[in-house]
């Protein structure tokens, strides 16, 4: 009997009138856990009853504690007929099972009814007493912490990252059971809500067990999803990254990660050497085990790594990261055809990555759901890997053995793994999985970013990341390391164009980098980033069963190809060279497929400058056509110029350099190029060849851009023209707005505290039955663009502001319906500082670094390879990258022209990125040192602070505590001092009076508002004042306006936290706690 | 092209004050969009009409959902559905309970009943306030009336605490409730020149001095019902006009004080008896409910109009009434000084307020 759960029902308020005669309610409460039920007395004739019940005690297994929610039902007592239910509250008690999270749940909860929505509130107190359990065969995993956040949570440090955990549980969907025919919709909805709550509890417990087995104590980046498979059942599955987390004393905790949104100018410390003089020299001894970037990683693989995953029979297939190989059907058996890629890539073994290899190879899947990492963790990034598979659903016969679904995912993961291997990477980061279901067809998708990781984090006993992160910073290639190619350049998995890194000029980098992760905080960026979306609709014939699945399988590679082309074009159009946070969603409907790719584009200083886009006609000689082409070309060029201004991408300005430096670096360049394994002559010849292929306008284009590379688009039919038009229709955000889908906007650092999280849903009905692909594309594009425009308009009062973490989800709920749901957060920033920053950056760097550079060029020329990484980081910086551009331009030119000639190759290119680290590295080191000292100062009060926050709240009278919500892992201007547990809630709402509730918009509007309210109430009851990493995983809306009915399911998740307003620690170290307590109190009270 | 569903929900509820006003004013969504377009939001923000429509719809829905809460504003502060910063809550409530002077002038003193509600379309046509807005305002009056009816304690304070209104607005509502309760006639043509603010001021005076609340502050309806005992006592004042000596004495005292101080002296002297009879008769009749209703029309007919036709200036009026009141104290046979002061204090300030064009 290892746990005692205690609950007390205090009071209710704002109850609905249940007795028409008296206009009052005789309310009482049932409290249920497992199979035990308690009841309060009836509080007669009151809409604001005071029960003040005794403590109801449940003695239960901790296994049950994890699985079951506490169920509170408010009823209206009726002497003569059955008691009427007013509504329910489900309380997940998981947060109470972990000593570090919340200790009590206390507060007002909305009473929720699936038919009527929120009907008043109830005040409840819940506590848990856990007894120590020494049973080693236990089934529970109490104490394992769960985080939705996809980075190491702010008041913890990762002692060890164990790796991938996954689990799925299946059950029959109550909505489809026979009993549903005879029970009320309310009963059916409640059965479903309860089942899913149970299933997620079970899932979490099982994952927890796996984590304990691995020796971890937490799951980070926990991603739980539902597959509503209809007739064939209900699947709840989850993935995450198991870690061993150590709690930092809360005083200093968040500083380990505050570099993500620093308030100091990144440039100001640019010339500090990256803290070799560090405060903790002790850690130096760990250095040897980490092999510096230069040599070992460049070793060639023994066996050929020429791109085996691509079968020649599929000329349209994409790069290794696409999944065309596995579009097989798996009808009844659940046996996939398996990834041919996986088998072929299997034998690949690189020689010299022993530690890493061994560390990772012990794992079945070296996957990480994290999207941002402790410094030094990420060594190189290869590019995006993804896999999709089309399956036919059938009934899950034995829910206890969900082998079929497991096998499906296993297959996909194997494929991802092999793709990563083909990219020369041993791990996949920013990994996620998703499904799209339509009737009996299901598309399973997985994607991530192939990467090489620092093995240190995965081995026991040598880790101390939190306090010593700069230690790893030093030996690792400064900031640009992650953009360096992980694969061997002579045996590249796909024909990417390589150049020397514009930052350290020692390693090769690709010309474009695509990733699914957040931009590493130390990456150097030129200008600002922006949201880039590729949107696509494809009609398909209605079909059943295998025919349908085959049709879908056949369409998928084309869609991926087109999405990729669009992304690439749009990236070029914005003069950027890298994508972060890439998320490609393909949704299946009865008669169409929707594809939406979102990412944040940036100009990484370490990567070569992107070229322009060139239009070429297929039929030269046609004069009118040529004129047309010219006009389009001009528009494109204008757009590029405009975009450069808009996003402040202006590296050319740095040409104005001291000639001496210029010369020095040029010399170095030549040497490098000559010694490079990609001989220049080859480039040239390619360049010429492509030049002759392309049209005469090329030279004009080059002049207008001052760049030597171009990306050629051929206009050979109307489709292409449409494509180009759609390329140009994307409106830039209005002045004062920026947007991105990553955690933070590259190029903006000075966030202020204004935060507005929102969810928006639009459903579009296609009226015309005879739609073409083009027509559909236009509609879909307009839908997305208009949504964005609406956001900008609505949030105009927050200017200057940035929409962060714009997360679009598309679905085809019915034939002829397109649904787009967006959750994002608008954050304000300080405009003045931003304007300063771009100017500031080059200038400071320019003057401070030029000096140093003057001293180094000769050395560089003489023996560039022997220079320590540290020096290379020193000379890195903007001036350098500009110097490189002439050379890079020529190389790039070749690359692009070459690629145009074979689309296939273009497809296969997946991108890579660079960051410039030296600058921020040193800054971070500072803030770290800072954090250490502030820790000492402020450590005594961690508990006290949260308590005072709580008491302030409760004394705040009747006013409701403010709970902020954000999809990001932090709130600007605040520090998270405590994680209170995961929020994972599932709600169903149904109505049979749709018109009366304001139509389907009114219905959904109030439902979303209710969901927000319930999330806030739960967080507040845990003692929190914010939800971070909030996301709406599912929003399934079914409507039947003719019957005046609608039903909606929403699943949301996030991490409940306590955060306090960040004060200037330098100025008032001693009073800091007081200030924070006050401010947080004020925050809570307002 | 048909957007079937379009919603936007913020964690902090987003409300545009301009749209809120349009909603309160009873504009339909389409009309509101037109108004906004003319207002130039579009040019300012390069948005299209669609964007504006979608935004307006969202906001209207939000307001509709909030309306239930606004009916008992205290709920707005501790409801969980909408997260609205306190200062915004205050704005929402204040604006929701704000009313058009033109409208309130029409219903002031009328019974807040269904019958009156049926006349709202006429009022709407007359005042060019939309019917929807009229209904809202009328329902607000009625709601406040119903709630404070059953409460003890000072009227203004009750309204302020129950509906979380500003002091000014609470006073206006107190006036409306007071007028509705006593059914003062305000609609006659002769009273048309008076604004709501004139009446509200007078109501404040009456509430402060003539109600039960002025003497006892713990009874129900203390501020809405006039003090019956006081009204009874007012009859005693008749002696000022029935006793010939007293009347003459009073007149001579007043005239002595006024002589040479005003151009209108002759008219004052000539009209003294008439005016005095007017005021004292009003006092004496107030025991009849019917005459209470006609209080304002009597004041105008019996006092303000004669003075106006004699072209008294506002300061003449002040001078006259001050001396008229004070002189009564010197009359040795006049024993009802306290009642006289309580009566004249209100009459004086009401007439000062009402004496304009």
How would you summarize the topology of this molecule?
The complex is a heterodimer of chains A (1086) and B (357).
Chain A: E1 3-13, E2 27-33, E3 36-39, E4 56-60, H1 62-67, E5 70-76, E6 84-91, E7 105-113, E8 117-130, E9 145-146, E10 156-171, H2 185-214, E11 218-228, E12 234-247, H3 340-345, H4 354-361, E13 378-392, H5 403-422, E14 427-438, E15 441-453, H6 465-473, E16 498-500, E17 508-510, E18 513-514, E19 525-539, H7 545-573, E20 578-588, E21 592-604, E22 612-617, H8 623-646, H9 659-675, H10 680-693, H11 697-705, E23 710-715, H12 718-729, E24 737-739, E25 751-765, H13 773-794, E26 801-811, E27 817-829, H14 831-855, H15 857-862, H16 869-875, H17 878-901, H18 903-908, H19 918-938, H20 942-955, E28 964-965, E29 974-991, H21 999-1021, E30 1026-1040, E31 1045-1061, H22 1072-1085
Chain B: E1 2-10, H1 17-24, H2 29-39, H3 41-45, H4 49-70, H5 73-78, H6 86-97, H7 101-107, H8 114-118, H9 120-127, H10 131-149, H11 155-163, H12 167-182, H13 196-210, H14 228-234, H15 239-242, H16 244-258, H17 265-285, H18 289-293, H19 295-309, H20 314-330, H21 337-354
Helix pairs in contact in B: 2-4, 10-12, 11-12, 12-13, 13-21, 14-17, 16-17, 16-20, 17-19, 20-21
What is the gist of this entry?
Chain A is 32% helix and 28% strand.
List keywords for this structure.
heterodimer, A: 1086 residues, alpha+beta, four-stranded antiparallel β-sheet, disordered C terminus, B: mainly alpha, Globin-like, elongated, fibroblast growth factor binding (chain B), FIBP (chain B), Fibroblast growth factor (acidic) intracellular binding protein A (chain B), lipid-binding (chain A), transport (chain A)
What would your notes on this structure say?
The complex is a heterodimer of chains A (1086) and B (357). Chain A is of the alpha+beta class. Chain A has 22 helices and 31 strands. In chain A, helix 9 crosses helix 17 (878-901) and helix 10 packs across helix 17 (878-901). Chain A is globular and about 90 Å long. Chain B is mainly α. Chain B folds into three domains: 17-97, no CATH class; 101-191, no CATH class; 228-354, Globin-like. Helix content of chain B is 69%, strand content 3%. In chain B, helix 13 runs antiparallel to helix 21 (337-354), helix 17 runs antiparallel to helix 19 and helix 20 runs antiparallel to helix 21. The longest helix of chain B is centred in the N-terminal third of the chain and has 22 residues, at 49-70. Chain B is elongated. The N and C termini of chain B lie far apart (59 Å). The chains are: A alpha+beta (1086), B mainly alpha (357). The interface between A and B is large, with 53 and 40 residues. Strand 25 of chain A pairs antiparallel with strand 1 of chain B, so a sheet runs across the interface. Chain B: One of its GO terms (molecular function) is fibroblast growth factor binding. Chain B: It comes from Lates calcarifer. Chain B: This is Fibroblast growth factor (acidic) intracellular binding protein A. Chain B: InterPro entries: FIBP.
